Amino acid sequence: MAQSISENKPPELKLFNTLSGQLESFIPLDPAGKKVKLYVCGPTVYDDAHLGHARCYITWDVLYRFLKFLGYDVKYVRNVTDVDDKILNRAKERDETPAALAERNYESFAADMKALNVLPPDEEPRATQYIGDMLQGIQTLMDKGAAYRTADGSVYFRVSAKADYGKLKFGTHDPEALKKHLEDLKSGARVDVDEEKESPLDFALWKAVPLSDPNGWQSPWPAAGADKGWGRPGWHMECSAMNHAVFGAQIDIHAGGADLIFPHHENEIAQSEAWTGHQPFAKYWLHNGFVNVSGEKMSKSLGNFSTIKKLLERYDANTIRYFLLTAGYRKPVDFNEVSLNSAQSGVAEIHESIAEAFKQLRLAQQDIVQFELVPNPSLVEQLKESALRDTIVVYESAFKSLSQDLNTAGALGQLNLLKGRLQSYTRQFSEENFQANFTGSERTNLEAFQLVLNLLLHLFSTLGFDSHLAFVQKEISLSPEELGAVKGFVQSRKTAKAEKNWAEADRLRNEILSQGYQLLDNKDGTTTVEKDGVEILRV
Is the dihedral of CA 132, 137, 143, 145 positive or negative? Predict the structure, then answer.
């Protein structure tokens, strides 16, 4: 396992387990304590990825990177739901096959993740590849009396067969408390008239569809009077089957958005544990918080549904990640212009510090790879008692923060302290050119400077930032005529708004937007004009 460079031992990782409602020490199921099975609920690929996906997968990307830093042998699996009513409905709207729609949106999602510098999982199973495993699991549940079929050939999980159903949602294993909670759920549940469920809480493992439906699979459970069964899997069953096929009966960590706690993850637990007879299905359940946009829950109906692609038009990947990591991953996060602009400024300072250090050290951009590696322990040991001692403590404090339930805000605080130390060395190098060398067992100032850069870039990389972006400079070149035309449009729009001629103001705004510019109306009454995320004018 990777070691703390001054204490000679790794920080103890603690994670908040939704299942217990407590912060727990992380101890893998693996008897040797080395292997970790990590599963994250992936996207349903019916549309472009949105801000909720960015928050979710950046969060678990940091967890994945940190587990690897700690020396664990992590197998990271993130599924793809490529069969779903949303996919079928969207494909019908667009007059294309569900498979084509799903593939196109998956490729779009993968491109977005790459653009956000999210590491790919070790395996990315797709639901349609595991229909056989789902059928096998469903039959096992029926054989055990934990599931039943209805007259149309659908199969439902019998919630009453799992005495601890509700333990994730309600955070208790007490049978009497769960019984009361479930009675309350039943009283508020609705059962469709065509469902022959024994209880309103029972959920679908297999949904029968007409034999004429081209988007179905054969099953062993035909409807009354039919020659063969035909249907589609229930959403919850997909993840259980893929986990079972890839990992076996149990995993260490199951993660996803807080919106999945109930019913999706609750149902996964119930059917998986009833299927295999092993508890727990997942030892640790981790959930990231909800996403708001300018104070309102993200929703298409509110008109604030923003895609990752749109966000990346204005902010780079490091800015988006920095913004998200300033909040605890379990807390709600609000995407808004003020906070994103603040993150952009913070990232710009770090980028500038890295670029200036590389310039003074006469390093090339490709040298980043070497400086992102774990700092040399022997060099650290030799410099530990020098003036670098406090800097090393700052670096290690960042990893201690991460070990406390991924306290990324604390880690960012230490990152900014390292940025200050790096700036100090950069200034000193520039002024003195580091002509003086120490003698004996001490190292030169140059080595100290390089180590500080190493500490910062290693932490930067472990948090998932793309160091190469420190060397990307956007330049927008406009002719005086173009700049004058844009300024004229903005001033005309301001006049129209002042005269309450809203139709004309909207027309002018749309004209500016159609030319590839972005408009931001500021609280001080000014209007900022941007192109490709770069400010070109403020009126």
Answer: negative
**pLDDT at residue 489, rounded to an integer:** 82
Three-state DSSP class for residue 249: coil
In this structure, is residue 440 part of a structural domain?
yes
Neighbours of 436 (CB within 10 A): 8
Residues sharing a CB contact under 8 Å with residue 516, sequence separation 6 or more, in sequence order: 531, 532
pTM, full prediction: 0.86
* Residue 467 in tokens: 């160091």
Residue 452 shares a structural domain with residue 528: no
What pLDDT digit, counting tens, does each position of 446-486 carry?
Answer: 888 999 999 999 999 999 999 999 998 765 666 777 788 88
Compare 389 and 382 and report the one with higher pLDDT: 389
CATH number of the CATH domain containing 98: 3.40.50.620
Q: Are residues 464 and 490 in the same domain?
A: no
Is 14 a member of any domain? no
Q: How many domains in the chain?
A: 3
What is the crossing angle of helices 51-69 and 98-115, to 10°? 60
